[in-house]
């Protein structure tokens, strides 16, 4: 089974996250064993991103969602380490400003969509408006319940304008989250990430799981699939995401454009400069 199939949420399938092993690590037993494959994937990802940029006909949007400590930042660092910064960027979506709230909920998202030739990675995304908004009753159910169809229509519009969309839910267990909270407490380099909200939001774990399950079930489409990535092992999370992005990009009909200049003329210019 290829990676696009292994972790993809089948359109219209009903997802139950408790049935998916967050500790899955395929045939690899350790990070050390997977290092060689990870390095090869990063090298290939670098080539494919350069080709996407050169081809210039389409763009790639990567959406990352997950519970706190799920590894969104780590996944971003892993992907960006393999890419030319000239052709990619990260957008983080926090509490909307007053100006953003004066528009529809997708307005600020559309502003951040990638241009042709570009890769954009969303650290959290438009799905927050059917996640935290739902869990904390920030708007009436009659409002957020309509947003699934609005999100699907929005993503379809992006796809029709040559944006490819890959969406990753980084799936960790409740026990693994608590372990990572402890790591933050014990590691001075990570203590800045600690927030009172971490433990308060943990009290809503089951509500968030229910919200994610509905979003995954209703918004995984052939044109904009969701993938549930086992993320208890950080190295396997990075490996799985890289496999999927590489496999997807390899399936696109990307071509390097023909030179825009007269190469024979440029060769004569080069030789003349060399001899002068």
UniProtKB/TrEMBL annotation:
A GO molecular-function annotation: polyphosphate kinase activity
* Residue ranges of every copy of the Polyphosphate kinase-2-related domain listed in the record: 31-255
Q: Does the keyword Transferase apply?
A: yes
Q: Which UniProt key words apply to this protein?
A: Kinase, Transferase
Give an example GO biological process: polyphosphate metabolic process
The domain of life for this entry's organism is Bacteria
Q: Which family does it belong to?
A: Belongs to the polyphosphate kinase 2 (PPK2) family. Class I subfamily.
Output this protein's name.
Polyphosphate kinase 2 (PPK2)
Origin organism is: Gimesia algae
């Amino acid at each position: 089974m290829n990676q696009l199939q292994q972790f993809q949420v089948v359109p219209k399938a009903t997802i139950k996250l408790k049935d998916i092993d967050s500790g899955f690590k395929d045939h690899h037993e350790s990070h050390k064993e997977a290092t060689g494959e990870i390095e090869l994937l990063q090298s290939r990802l670098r080539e494919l991103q350069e080709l996407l940029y050169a081809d210039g006909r389409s763009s790639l949007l990567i959406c990352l969602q997950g519970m706190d400590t799920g590894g969104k930042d780590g996944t971003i660092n892993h992907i960006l380490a393999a890419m030319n910064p000239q052709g990619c960027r990260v957008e983080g979506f926090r509490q909307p400003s007053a100006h953003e709230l004066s528009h529809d909920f997708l307005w600020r998202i559309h502003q951040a969509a990638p241009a042709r030739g570009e890769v954009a990675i969303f650290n959290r995304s438009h799905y927050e408006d059917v996640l935290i908004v739902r869990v904390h009753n920030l708007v009436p159910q009659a409002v957020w319940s309509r947003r699934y169809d609005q999100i699907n229509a929005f993503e379809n519009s992006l796809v029709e304008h040559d944006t490819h969309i890959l969406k990753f839910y980084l799936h960790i267990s409740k026990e693994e989250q608590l372990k990572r909270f402890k790591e933050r407490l014990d590691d001075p380099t990570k203590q800045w990430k600690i927030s009172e909200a971490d433990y308060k939001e943990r009290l809503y774990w089951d509500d968030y799981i229910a919200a994610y399950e509905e979003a995954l079930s209703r918004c995984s489409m052939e044109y904009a699939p969701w993938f549930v990535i086992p993320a208890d092992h950080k190295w396997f999370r990075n490996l799985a995401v890289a496999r999927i992005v590489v496999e997807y990009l390899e399936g696109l009909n990307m071509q390097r454009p023909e030179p825009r200049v007269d190469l024979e003329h440029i060769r004569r210019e080069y030789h003349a400069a060399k001899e002068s």
